[in-house]
Amino acid sequence: MANLRSKFRGSIFGAAIGDTLGMPVEKWTIEKIRSELGEVKDMLGGRQGPPGTWTDDTAMTIAVAESLIECKGFDSSDMRSKFLRHYDPRRGFGLAVKSALGVLTEEARKAVQEQLKVVGMWNGSAMRIAPVGLFYYDDPVKLRQASHESSKITHDHMLAHEGAALQAYAIGILVGVEPGALDPEGFLHQLEGFVTEDAYKEQLRKALEMMSQHEDKQGIANSLGNTAHALRSIPTAIYSFVTHRGDFRDAVIYAVNLGGDADTIGSMTGALSGAYLGEEAIPSDWRMKVENASYLCQLADELFRLSTRNA
Predict the structure, then answer these.
(1) Which of 47, 54, 119, 277 could be 58's S-S partner, Cβ–Cβ 3.0 to 4.6 Å?
(2) DSSP code of residue 25
(3) 148: buried, middle or exposed (CB in 10 Å: 19+, 13-18, 0-12)?
(4) What one-character-per-residue DSSP string does 149-172 give?
(5) CA angle, 126 as apex, 298 and 140 as ends, to 5°?
(6) Is the pTM of this model over 0.85?
(7) What is the pLDDT of residues 66-96, one digit of tens each?
(8) What burial class does residue 285 get, using C-beta atoms within 10 Å of its C-beta: 0-12 exposed, 13-18 middle, 19+ buried?
(9) Integer Cα distance of 12 and 27 in angstroms
(10) What is the DSSP letter of 92?
């Protein structure tokens, strides 16, 4: 049980740390990262705050965790209220969330009408889903249902719903696998068997093929994606984890240096790696430096307590 607690902490810390590592280079190209920084290797200050500051990704992950803990399971109305409580425009919340939570003025909604038609397919519900993957790690049926319903609060497309379920299911699997014991090919096949959307199945097959090809970062970004689109980011995070499964630091550093939606891909990668390797695998200075670390630890411990009691 102590190891399982470590995995819960690892996933929550991992999500926040991947987020804060990627925040300063969000929307940067790979070329810009290389020319200006060489490589992101540590937490840097950015437009949203000093090193360790996280974005809307972690703010909403906290909201999901709080709701699951308070309701002892998924409750759509309560989760939406938690999203509203944690809404802070300084964190960089996306259009889908702003629209769903009613924080856009009518004038603003009209101005972004065309964008709102596509943001329903983005990764905003997958980036916050780690607590669902942890809470329902031993029940894939409830995990998929809660992932879909959580996603529907803010995103209205099946690619977003099933993408969130895919990320949560991957976390659920990894919680139950001893560090060092993961069969990467079997893991990807298991994910492919779970996900219902053919587009995700194709991306996962592509990720498996690319594991042996040693593509450079630009090749991965071009093929699997590095955007905010769920289909073009969730498989990328899974690939980043699987190809660096033995080292948390290597996994998240690789993910954020892919550029694009670096904070979200970094966050999803960190949640996966932390669920597999546990809290101890995360550099201690990152755990201490990340914003509100003690509260993140508290949430992880409460999720652990409730999920294992339910089991």
Answers:
(1) 54
(2) G
(3) middle
(4) HHHHTT--SHHHHHHHHHHHHHHH
(5) 80
(6) yes
(7) 999 999 999 999 999 999 999 998 898 888 8
(8) exposed
(9) 24
(10) -
In the structure encoding, which two tokens stand for residue 117, read together? 């038609």
Q: Is the dihedral of CA 45, 49, 50, 55 positive or negative?
A: negative
Its sign, for the CA torsion 224, 271, 177, 215, is positive
Query: In terms of C-beta density within 10 A (0-12 exposed, 13-18 middle, 19 or more buried), how is residue 77 classed?
Result: exposed
| 160: CB partners within 8 A, 6+ apart | 120, 121, 122, 123, 124, 125, 126, 151, 230
pLDDT digits (tens, 9 = 90+) for 41-68: 999 987 778 999 999 999 999 999 999 9
Q: Which residues pair with 219 in a beta bridge?
A: none
Q: How far apart are CA 305 and CA 295, in angstroms?
A: 15
Which of 199, 210, 267 lies closest to 239, judged by CA?
A: 210
Phi and psi at residue 49, to the nearest 5° = 150, -175
In 3-state terms, what secondary structure has residue 140?
Answer: helix
Which amino acid is present at 305? Answer: R
Q: Which amino acid is at 22?
A: G
> What is the C-alpha to C-alpha distance for residues 190 and 193, in angstroms, rounded to an integer?
5
